[in-house]
Amino acid sequence: MKKRLLLVEDQTLVRKSLVALINTSEKYHVSDSVESVASAIALLKQDADFDLILCDYSLKGETALDFLQEKKGISSVPVILLTSFFNARYLQDCINFGAKGFLFKECDADELEEAFGVVLSGSTFFKIVESNQELQKSVLTGGGGIGLNSDLTPKEHEILRWMATGMSNKEIAKVLMKSDQTVKAQARELMRKLEVGSRTEAVIKATQLNII
């Protein structure tokens, strides 16, 4: 039997496209799709038997955070966020209120299914796309008059972006399914490359360099 999804998306064309895409799956089916927080909460209050909720972050006059806050205490169905942009503070707020996954709208069907499977297995799925590598390389190797010891690796760059959410090494390790020691070592190395002495300084400098 296919897993039942609730889709919360306010743009009609996007909503219909996502329904059509997901419903081609042999494992998942969008049984209900709504365009507002109020409609989604109303469905959940009816004890609708959903396995998973896919919610756009930006809704008309609302956000997924509003939905997560209202949902708290009503339903334990896991929520995956969809967004067109990355904002560390917004994402951390949503994680604090129980978001279990995060996907960009540019993702394909395979990535959607991967995220659904990971979250339904009890884990979390947070995937950040890499910024333009050539721009990143230019900035990190001295563009703009700021010299650094070396390029950040893709893994270090990913950890840096998670650090910007305020997450601890332990929390980052859980999200990335790595050991605490691995994340700690990579965080220490990226701070060395950025020539800073703390996580906060690393995030500030990375923001100034426009790499997160």
The low-confidence runs, each spanning 5 or more residues with pLDDT under 50, are: 129-149
Q: Give me the number of helical elements.
A: 10
Largest sheet: 6 strands, parallel
Q: What is the fold-level CATH name, i.e. the topology of the largest domain?
A: Rossmann fold
Distance linking N and C termini: 41 Å
User: What's the number of domains?
Assistant: 2
SS class: alpha/beta
**Mean pLDDT across all residues, rounded?**
83
Helix content: 40-55%
CATH superfamily descriptor of the largest domain: Response regulator
Give me the count of strands: 8
Strand content: 15-25%
Strand order of the largest sheet: 2-1-3-6-7-8
* SSE pattern, N- to C-terminal: EHEHEEEHEHEHEHHHHH
Characterize the structure shown.
This protein has ten helices and eight strands. The protein is an alpha/beta fold and about 210 residues long. Strands 2-1-3-6-7-8 form a six-stranded parallel beta sheet. Helix 7 (about 155-165) packs across helix 9 (about 180-195). The protein is elongated and about 55 Å long. The termini are far apart.
